[in-house]
Amino acid sequence: MNRRTKLGLNVLEAALLLGVLGDALLRQTPWGLNVFLWAGALVAAMCGLHGRAGGRASWRADGGWLLLPIGFFAAAFAWRDSATLKFLDGLALFVAFALLAWRARGHNIRLGGLGDYALGLGHAAFDVMFASLPLAISDVQWGAIPRRGAMRHVWAAARGLVIAVPLLFLFGALFMAADAVFEGIMRQTFELDAGQLFSHFFLTLLFAWMTGGFLRGMALAGDATTTAGAATQPAPTLSITTPPAHATYTSITVDDREQDGATSASAATGATREGETGAHRQSPGSVVVEGGATTVGATAGETTPVGVQEKEAAARGLSLGAVEVGVVLGLLNVLFACFVVVQFRYFFGGAERVMSITELTYSEYARRGFFELTWVAGLVLPLLLGVHALLRRNSPAAGRIFRTLAGAQVALLFVIMTSAVARMRLYQSEYGLTELRLYTTAFMLWLGLVFVWFAWTVLVRDARLRFACGALVAAFLTVGLLHLLNPDAYIVRANAAHARAGRSFDAAYAASLSADAVPALVSALPALSRDERCLAASELTRRWSGRPSGEDWRAWSLARTRAWRTVAAHQASLSQATCPPPVSSVPVITPMTATEPPPPPKTTTTNAGTTTNNANAAITNAATTSDAEKNAEAMRMINGTSGATAGVSNAAQAASAGNARARRHDRARVVKRTRTR
């Protein structure tokens, strides 16, 4: 059995164990402590397999620091309850695990570019979805597994199970049919829910498939690269060349792989051989890293990244010189400057300027402008990195122009980002805070850190290979600071401060937040209006009154525990603030009593106007009398229906129709009588 088959079997064993553990832990939702436990098991499996693959040195040298964010973000599932924070935690865990696997393949994390990181994430996603298939089919040579020792007993036990299971079912069914007591015992003992059994099987298979593919990509892919490429890819060497004369030199080669912890050095002095490459013919005092690290020139005193960038420059056919860089970045800087100049009169003007500008509301000014400017800031960074990657390395003028114009663009971008944050703060001061507004503001702050790091590494130090790792660390720190801030509780406190200042408070939105917001919302109840306090207290009581009886320890969360305890401690005050249930009432129709009609109007034959007025009054009185009579008749009909809703409706319709007919009849009769007189 060869080494690759052994590693494949180890990966399969770890994947099956992690699959069973994943079904036992992660099937319980909402996720909490179970994520931390399962992630710890996955890290242990990675360390064990990577150690067997011979990669212990790479963990210590470059990838070990990623274990810290893995532990933090896995534990954060049991710390905070916000769905957005949990999504960010899961994304950070995937990135950290993927980069660890990328390092296991022999790549560098600290000096990797954004393209390398993207490839690492893509490889990890592909392995999770598809790599388990070649693991079971081609990596493990099943025919080469020896049938002796423990494996012989395993295969024998498997064959015995295959033969015994059908016989057990056959004779068990016969015994159950023969005795009712035995049948009851067997049914009670082996009572299984088919749906639940399928769910256990499916989740176990799913987690085993995903972890098996991921571990295969970490352990066996690196093993294949080492085995297949050992003859074609020489190990990175450090060559220090110090020739005292044109005909002699001293060469020291250091093996950088450090797998055995030993260092090999060779020194030779003599005439220059004709078969040597130009890499060994360096000026005195120069250090050359052939694997792609740095070249230090003792005369010039400069440090420039080589190796990877030189290979990329040689491989690509497109490059940008001074003219192209000047045109592209120059025109963009002109556009940015014009935007800043035109908009500067109300970038920082505040509410007064907003109200003074025609057809511009707070929402249009702050919310819409903020997201557009966020897109601008997010697109500038890959643009500058792409232009820097395409710079013509043999053109110092192109580098100088790029640093100048890119620095100006970063400065203008900071002005735009500051205005975007100011717009959002204005919007928040008027309409309050939400998750979207808070997280987009945090994203802008992270972009600010990234641009500072870009200016330092790319523009000042010309060390682009260190940029991606710094941006990743800044992202990890930003998410960690969000956990310390507790966004949901911060949103409630900020909106409660607005309520104390006389502005509205969205109690329904605040009560819909996660358990992180419950203590802050309970503390803010006295500052709310009666209706807002009523709504918030009712929702808190409905969601968090009493710990669920079926709560499992695997889903334990500190935030949810605090929410239950807070609501339990303030149960009396919440009950007083809870809205009373709506009182259901039947509409009561007050019966109308017919009143005595007023005396008939006095008419005279000499005054036409008086006669007309009396006629109109007679019409009105007749209509009133008829209305009263018809209303009384309608009430008698309603009372006779014993309160039935259908009867009430029919009586009301009949009364309305009768009233209309009576009005028309009385009006016609009065007009006729008036004309007769």
List the keywords.
about 675 residues, mainly alpha, 5 domains, five-stranded antiparallel β-sheet, 25 helices, 5 strands, about 5% strand, flat
Q: What features would you describe in this structure?
A:
Helix 7 (132-139) packs across helix 10 and helix 18 (487-500) runs parallel beside helix 20 (518-524). This protein is mostly helical. It has a 5-stranded antiparallel β-sheet with strand order 2-1-3-4-5, with no helix packed on it. It has helices at 3-26, 33-52, 56-63, 67-76, 83-104, 114-130, 132-139, 150-178, 180-189, 194-228, 308-315, 322-347, 350-356, 362-389, 396-431, 435-460, 467-485, 487-500, 507-511, 518-524, 530-544, 558-569, 571-577, 608-639, 645-676, and strands at residues 237-241, 251-255, 286-289, 294-296, 303-305. The chain has 5 domains: 3-228, no CATH class; 237-313, no CATH class; 322-484, no CATH class; 489-547 and 555-577; 608-676.
